[in-house]
Design brief:
This protein is mainly α and 76 residues long. 59% of the residues lie in helices and 12% in strands.
């Protein structure tokens, strides 16, 4: 599962995260751009769906090996 997450990080870059600290200097909250938050939530949904994750992993392997079809080959 972590391999697919590492592959996805190549295509999606987070903006800078800004941490908010408590009196104990231990992070208790994170401030982030709303688009990054929504992307993170979507990533968590993908990672929790094993069937979808396997499909993505297979697609990445196919792409790496050049086993792809053009839009015209698929849709005519």
């Amino acid at each position: 599962m972590m391999t697919a997450l590492k592959e996805m990080k190549k295509y999606y870059r987070f903006r800078e995260l800004k941490y908010l600290y408590s009196d104990t200097k231990k992070p208790e909250a994170v401030q982030m751009h709303i688009d990054d938050f929504l992307g993170l939530m979507e990533t968590l949904q993908i990672l929790s769906n094993k069937k979808l994750l396997r499909s993505i992993q297979k697609g990445l392997i196919d792409l790496k090996h050049g086993d792809v079809l053009s839009h015209k080959e698929v849709f005519g």
